[in-house]
From TrEMBL:
ABC transporter domain span: 23-262
GO molecular function: ATP binding
Pfam families named in the record: ABC_tran (PF00005)
The keyword Nucleotide-binding belongs to this UniProt entry's keyword annotation: yes
Protein name per the record: ATP-binding cassette domain-containing protein
SMART domains for the chain: AAA (SM00382)
Annotated transmembrane regions: none
Native species: Variovorax ureilyticus
Alphabetic keyword roster: ATP-binding, Cell membrane, Membrane, Nucleotide-binding, Repeat, Sugar transport, Transport
């Protein structure tokens, strides 16, 4: 979380003010046959912290996030939440622990409304026995509350196919908030959208942080990461080469780490 104490570097967490740890990865490795995608990666996430995860294509960013999200099992290493080891065999296991992911393609249905997308797969119903119908009123009301909480202009009855990229991100993020998550993983949320929409998405990320949610932000856009992240983690060829407060790094240093001009920090 961001510091507010006199003399403290913005973006740095002191031991006295440290938020609780929500996830601890210890020496995570992953190989696909002869390909070593991750090698002994350790990482700690704290509540209300935005971690920028950066690296070149093939660095292992998406593999690491998919392990946390339950898509892949690690080949080696452990994951712990609240001082207990967790093992995810499928994405539902991760969601059960409060981990939600927003993929780059968002996985939205263009022919449905914003509210229907928020509740997709988790629809509210009423009725008796097999005679149940969708409770649109309740879904529209709760979706509207989530959009208001995120300070988004998206409206529950808007069709997704008519939305801007920023509004679509709001729908995807609202869907994660529906589950009251502790961790939200975001894969390139500002790719291929306008400058105005990028600002909207970055504000959505800040809203998540302000609600005490840990956010892992995968992005190739250096300005976006430095605008919202509290900490920067850099992977190169499956190995972690940097993990430090954003205030103690720079775009030039991160570029050097990604390209190999700087070995590690």
């Amino acid at each position: 979380m961001r510091a507010d104490q006199p003399g403290q570097v913005p973006g740095e967490v002191t031991s006295e003010a440290a938020a609780p740890t929500v996830l601890e990865l210890s020496r995570i490795s992953k190989h696909f046959g002869a390909i070593q995608a991750l090698n002994d990666v350790s990482l700690t996430l704290r509540a209300g912290e935005v971690v920028g995860l950066m690296g070149d294509n093939g660095a292992g960013k998406s593999t690491l996030v998919k392990i946390v999200a339950g898509n892949y099992p690690p080949s080696d290493g452990t994951m712990r939440m609240e001082d207990r080891e967790v093992v995810f065999h499928k994405p539902a296991d991760a969601r059960g622990e409060g981990i939600e992911i927003v993929y780059q393609d968002l996985a939205l249905c263009d022919n449905l409304t914003a509210a229907e997308n928020v509740y997709l797969g988790r629809e509210l119903t009423f009725g008796v026995g097999p005679f149940k119908v969708l409770n649109y009123r309740a879904m529209f009301q709760r979706a509207g509350e989530l959009f208001a909480e995120l300070k988004s202009e998206t409206r529950p009855r808007d069709l997704v196919r008519r939305m801007s990229g920023g509004q679509r991100q709001a729908v995807a993020i609202a869907r994660t908030r529906l589950a009251d998550p502790r961790i939200v993983l975001m894969d390139e949320p500002t790719a291929a959208i306008s400058v105005r929409q990028i600002a909207e998405v970055l504000n959505l990320i800040r809203r998540l942080r302000d609600h005490g949610i840990a956010v892992v932000l995968i992005s190739h856009r250096m300005p976006d990461v430095f605008a919202v992240a509290d900490r920067i983690v850099v992977l190169r060829r499956g190995t972690k080469v940097a993990d430090k407060p954003i205030a103690r790094s720079s775009p030039e240093e991160v570029t050097g780490l990604i390209t190999g001009a700087i070995e590690s920090v």
